[in-house]
Amino acid sequence: GAGVSQTPSNKVTEKGKYVELRCDPISGHTALYWYRQSLGQGPEFLIYFQGTGAADDSGLPNDRFFAVRPEGSVSTLKIQRTERGDSAVYLCASSPELTPSTDTQYFGPGTRLTVL
Amino acid sequence: GDSVTQMEGPVTLSEEAFLTINCTYTATGYPSLFWYVQYPGEGLQLLLKATKADDKGSNKGFEATYRKETTSFHLEKGSVQVSDSAVYFCALSAPPGNTGKLIFGQGTTLQVKP
C-alpha cells in the first residue's frame, strides 16, 4: 500500500518568507509526527498529533513554527519569517497508535528546506 | 533529559565481517528502544525494536538486546554485506505521556566494501 508522502521534496526560499510543508500519512494511521533533521544529525522531534489535535508540541523551536491537521489525516507544517537556521530536512511519520510508545513509526522521504 | 549516544562513524568493514554499533541511553522510566536505518536515497525505516528489559529485537540478520543494567542497545550482525551500507540510528521512546515521541542518536554511517 501507499506509504507516507511529503510534498514538496525540495523547497528553496529566501530569508523572511513563509513556507508550508505537507504530509500525507498512511491511511488509517491516527498518530502523526514531525521531525527535523540537520546534516549529520539524527532527527529531532517537533510535534505529535493524535487525530486532529496536537498532543505534544514541545519540540517546536519557537512561535514561527506551527502545524495543523484539521481532518485528522493530512498535516501541514508552517514556518513564518524563515531564517537560514531553519534549513534542514523535515520528516513526517505516522503510526497506527495502537500503543504509541512501542508502535513502529513509518517515515516519509522528507522535504529538504533551504533558506537562502 | 532523555538522550541517546551512538558510537562515532563512519564504520568501514569488509564484506562478511562482524558488526557492532554501540548505543547507550539515558531515560527516566522504562523506554522502548529502536534501531532505524536509512539506506542511500531512501527514507528512514524500522530495523528492529525491543520494548522491555532483556528483550532481543532481530531482523535481516541484525540483533540488539535491551540491557537495562548497562543502559545499552548495541546493534550486531555476524556477517555484513555490501547492501548493509547505510546510516543507522538508535532511538528511544520514553514515558511519561505515552506519546511515542522518538529521541534519536546522531547516527552511525556503515560502509561495507566488497
Question: Layout of SSEs?
Answer:
The complex is a heterodimer of chains A (116) and B (114).
Chain A: E1 5-7, E2 10-13, E3 19-24, E4 31-37, E5 44-50, E6 53-56, E7 65-68, E8 75-79, E9 88-95, E10 106-107, E11 111-115
Parallel strand pairs in A: 2-11
Antiparallel strand pairs in A: 1-3, 3-8, 4-5, 4-9, 5-6, 7-8, 9-10, 9-11
Chain B: E1 3-6, E2 11-14, E3 19-21, E4 23-26, E5 32-38, E6 45-50, E7 56-59, E8 62-65, E9 75-77, E10 86-93, E11 102-104, E12 108-113
Parallel strand pairs in B: 2-12
Antiparallel strand pairs in B: 1-4, 3-9, 5-6, 5-10, 7-8, 8-9, 10-11, 10-12
What does this structure look like?
The complex is a heterodimer of chains A (116) and B (114). In chain A, 34% of the residues are buried. Chain A has 116 residues and is mainly β. Chain A has strands spanning 5-7, 10-13, 19-24, 31-37, 44-50, 53-56, 65-68, 75-79, 88-95, 106-107, 111-115. Chain A is 0% helix and 47% strand. The model of chain B has no long low-confidence stretch (mean pLDDT 93). Helices cover 0% and strands 49% of the residues of chain B. Chain B is built from no helices and 12 strands. Chain B is globular. In chain B, strands 2, 5, 6, 10, 11 and 12 form a 6-stranded mixed sheet that branches. Chain B has a 4-stranded antiparallel sheet with strand order 3-9-8-7, with no helix packed on it. A two-stranded antiparallel ribbon of chain B has the order 1-4. With 114 residues, chain B is mainly β. Chains A and B meet through strand 4, strand 5, strand 9 and strand 10 of A and strand 6, strand 10 and strand 11 of B.
